[in-house]
Amino acid sequence: MHAPALPDTLGATSAWPALTGIAYGGDYTPEQWPREVWEEDVALMRDAGVNLVSIGIFAWALLEVSEGEFDFDWLDDVIDLLHRNGISVDLGTPTASPPAWFFAQHPDARAVTRDGVPLGFGARGMASHSAPAYREAAVRIATELARRYGHHPAVVLWHVHNEYGVPVGEDYSAHSVREWRRWLQERYETLDALNAAWGTAFWGQHYGEWEHIGAPATAPSVVNPAQRLDFARFTDHQLRSCFIAERDAIRAHSDRPITTNFMANQHNGCDLWAWAREVDIVSDDHYLWAADEEGEIGLAIAADLTRSVGRGAPWILMEHSTSAVNWQPRNVAKRPGEMARNSLSHFGRGADGILFFQWRASRSGAEKFHSAMLPHAGTTSRVWREVVDLGAKLRALAEVRGSHVPAEVAVLWDFESFWAQDLEWRPSEDVSHAERIRAFYEKLWRDQITVNFALPGHDLSRYKLVIAPAQYMLSAADAENLNRYVEGGGTLVVSFFSAVVDEHDAVHAGGFAAPLEPSLGLRVEEHLPLRAGDVAGIVFDETPYPADTWQEDLVLTTAEVRATYDGGPAAGGPAVTRNTHGDGVGWYLSTRPDAAGLAAVLDAAYADAGISPSGLPAGVEAVRRITDEAEYLIAINHGTETVSLQTSGFDLLTQEEARGTLVLSAGDVAVIRTQRTAEGGGR
Ligand code: GAL
Fold first, then answer.
1. In the structure, what pLDDT confidence band is assigned to residue 678 with cuts at 50, 70 and 90?
2. How many domains does the chain have?
3. pLDDT by residue (tens digit) across 201-212?
4. Residue 317: enclosing H or E segment and its boundaries?
5. 144, 163, 179, 338: which one is catalytic?
């Protein structure tokens, strides 16, 4: 009998590359090495179980040696060598780093900074996203590659560009300004509409001619925030249209899936909700933030966000590191077992490909201190042994491929709102969307409740609980969507400094948070940011908790008070409220309580939503992936003690049966398969 479908996943599928099992490998740069090394590379790739490598990503100068003159001989040899050895290719288009000849011939195509500095050659980074010469050159090299390799049996995936928007996103060149005006004309049609949307009556910025509108370059004071927000939207649009142009050029000659590597939560410049609709497969690069002592939580956010923008379809971890990351302030090395835990956490959260930057450590150049699958120290190193071991583990997990990750909770993640919130002259520089999302997510992570991220306009009815930790910008339509969600029986938790402005960064008529009044049963009369270091507590269910950064004067209409301020400018006033609306509940937190205070409030919201924490020992990460027939529990012990989990099933990694109890040593990972039944769920 068939188990029920997958009600609580987003359930999307993607065109997966023709590969057996989980994809394993990394960026491969044979162009940096003499040919003898290539033979050794492929032999070692086989030893490690590598089945996919990304090549050509930064090789434009060696593929198109001068404008229109191509040298593909070396790439033919590399691809054939890999193919003979059973290793598939994720073929890059090298457009993230145009050659020296390109910039020499097209100096006007250089991107220009906000301060008017044209960016020079000698590093990497694309040209102006709006320069016709760059667009033409990018499509030309993508077309030539697709013509030549579009049907090559080794090429199973296309890797367009590299991390759009990094390191060059916003561009203030003349080409960009020209396209910006065109984009604005399409968006607003009339100058009256633009003047209204940007609120140009303020500081006398009214425009009477399209030609007078510039990019929001450095100016004597703070530039119009609505203009800057639109410029961020324009930049995202231009970068995406560069991707689309290359994608379509490839598609004309190849039927293989096409991706480009995102940087989920590590680069905010691209609206990945929109980007994910344009790729065949979502892929992401994630670099553990070494200064974060619980980097696994940031990693989980990245992985959950990547899966969510792809509507739940399996995705590829295109890059992460085996150990040190050279661009961080301190190249903190990963400790034994950490690389496998990181990899399997991504896998547990839906990644069906685990790849690294990079295969072999580079001897020269800016990234020689970056770790690799094959480190400078070679095959006698611990890192290499762990790479070989990880390859074996992933082979044992092949059957999990294509399964989905269920989630009952959504956390709102809105890139456009972040762009707006990050502009100047906000009420307190201590308020950060990244910090708030991390705080709420961290509580859910500690309870091992799996999260999807979502936009406020999404259909949220599948979720028992929706959390808005940082939704500064909220359109009236999206607010209505949230109100409908609550009315229909959902539980919504909103944190302070949310629903403040509309999509033009204009304060909502009726005051801060007015559009959410039906759900929250209150109005925010005044923001009361605190001085740096000031702590003013709240009392929730008779327990005091410290809180800092922010308070508000709230005027309650239908909400009940659940916590009051015991100090600070709002002393005695409501700090946390709960409101019933239709069949659901809206919670509001008007301050930043410490982790225990936040946990207490969220526990109460869980009770409204009918969800419960997993009750696992601290430091154990547990995620589930499901198919119609099977459920896989991926359990990772990040702690320093051995723990026991109550579970039965077959451990795919040890090939042993767990009967009631699973003992997981410090640092260990288990992947336990159980059968799903028609009654629902694994056992
Ligand atoms: C990535 C980039 C790679 C490499 C890596 C090093 O962001 O895509 O090319 O530079 O960082 O961590």
1. low
2. 3
3. 999 999 999 999
4. strand 315-319
5. 163
